[in-house]
Amino acid sequence: MELDNLKSLWNKEDVSETPEISPEKQRQMHHPLERIRKNMRYEFWSTVVLLPVILIVIWFFPLPFRFNLYIEILVISMALVTTFFFTKFFKLYKEISNPALGTLDSLKDLLHQFELNKQYYVSFYLSFVPFFVCEMIIILESMPQTHHYSDTMLTIVFLGSVAFGLTMVYFIGMAWFKNFYGKYIDRIKKLVEEMKK
Question: Which regions span the lipid bilayer (predicted)?
Fold first, then answer.
């Protein structure tokens, strides 16, 4: 009998309820979240405009047919990869605009989403490694052979160009993420840490 009473009390009690975030903390969090959303919109629309511009420039640039075809295929493939990553990006964008971000648990979940999206961001840049290598091969193969370079020299130039290009992509990507998102995510982490105390 007493066990049944305990069971019914246990079922009635909502243990998932977490403390609400004060309106002051919500206002402090609003600015970095809104900046992240604004930067996400900017990044999305700049990419949507940039890819067709690249294709148009390629079409009107007087290039040999095969070179033009290879570059177009690479750009279209990049657009497909970018579309995949933007679907992940859009989920986070919707999560940020969720009005139910009023509990500490929902903010912890949002921070986890930010961490996942940082990994997606790194994966996005790494996914361009094969495209970059293919572009370098196409450029080297399409260069007019006015001078006869040794295979060793071409290998050194190719590997040096790829290493330099990939290093630049990595550092630019990390700086871009930190400037556009990282500093705002750090502010949110700091507010969450303050709320845990």
Answer: 42-61, 67-87, 120-140, 152-177
- Whole-angstrom Cα distance, residue 153 to residue 159? 10
The reported pTM is: 0.70
Cα gap 92→77, rounded to integer Å: 24
Structure token digits, residue 119: 């990994």
Residues 6+ apart with CB under 8 A from 78: 51, 128, 131
**At 5, which helix (H) or strand (E)?**
helix 2-12
Sign, Cα dihedral of 75, 54, 38, 126? positive
Q: What are the tokens at 13?
A: 């009690």
pLDDT of residue 156: 86
Q: What is the pLDDT of residues 125-182, one digit of tens each?
A: 888 888 888 887 887 777 666 666 677 887 888 888 888 888 888 888 888 888 988 8
Q: What is the DSSP letter of 197?
A: -
Kindly report, residue by residue over 81-99, the tens digit of the pLDDT.
888 888 888 888 887 776 5
C-alpha torsion 112→117→122→127, nearest 10: 140
pLDDT band of residue 69 (cuts 50, 70, 90) is: confident
* Amino acid residing at 190: K
